[in-house]
Every structure is written in structure tokens, then in C-alpha cells.
Amino acid sequence: MKKWLVFVFALSFSFFLTACGGSSKPYEKTAIEFIEAMYNGQGDKVQKMIYIPAEEFKEPGIEEMVKGKMAAAAHDAKKQADQYGGLKNVTVLESSHDESGKRADVRLALTFKNGPEGSREERVDLIKDGSTWKVNLD
């Protein structure tokens, strides 16, 4: 009986993990979050996801310039998405990371609510900053 319960629990847990599914790689999740934030016009969230090297912080105005440009880009992306009824889904087509595990590249497919018209692919370059994946604009 005990073995049976363990088996049922293990099977249920595996179904739960599959259902929660999506992307299991942290850098893929970051890429999806970034694209969703862009096409939903969430400029503040987009800004927080951008990697700015420490040496560039020393130059006056760099951080503000990057934040301003990303807020404008998110606004423009939302306008584009709204033309097609809004963003419906973002899925990973392929992803890879370097041997050090500090850089990754993710290719995504975007679908919109008005069907295949306007669907596109996006590529997101990521860099690991401490324990967090961030979008690399380099």
C-alpha cells in the first residue's frame, strides 16, 4: 500500500510539474518576461531587466538615457501589438548558452490575438548578472 501511495504521489507531482511547464531554463523565462513586458508597454519592468555594465554607470546620464529609450521602445511595441489585438502568446523556439553559463541567446515566436497576421520572431541576448539573468543590449 505504501509503495502504491508513493507511486501515485510521484505520478501526480510529475503531472503538476508538466502542467506548470513552459520554460524550465531561467534565461528562457527572463527572455519571455522581457518580451511580454515590451509588448504590454510595461516600460518600468523592461528598464529593470536591462543589463548596464558597472563601468557605464560612471558616465553621467547613461542610465537615464537607457531607461528613457527602453520606455519609448516599450510604448512603441505596445502600439504595434495593439494593432493586432494585443499579445497572445510567447514561446521559445530555441535557446543556447555559452560554456561558462553566463551568456544565453533565446529565439522566441510571438503570436497576437488577431491570429497569425503580425506574428513574428524575436531574439533576446542575455547575460547573467550575479544570480539574475538580464537582457544584454550590446
TrEMBL record:
Domain DUF4878 as annotated: residue spans: 19-136
InterPro entries: DUF4878
Keyword set includes Iron: no
Keyword Flavoprotein: no
Signal peptide region: 1-19
Family matches, as Pfam families: DUF4878
UniProt keyword list: Signal
Superkingdom of origin: Bacteria
Protein name, entry field: Lumazine-binding domain
Native source organism of the sequence: Oligella urethralis
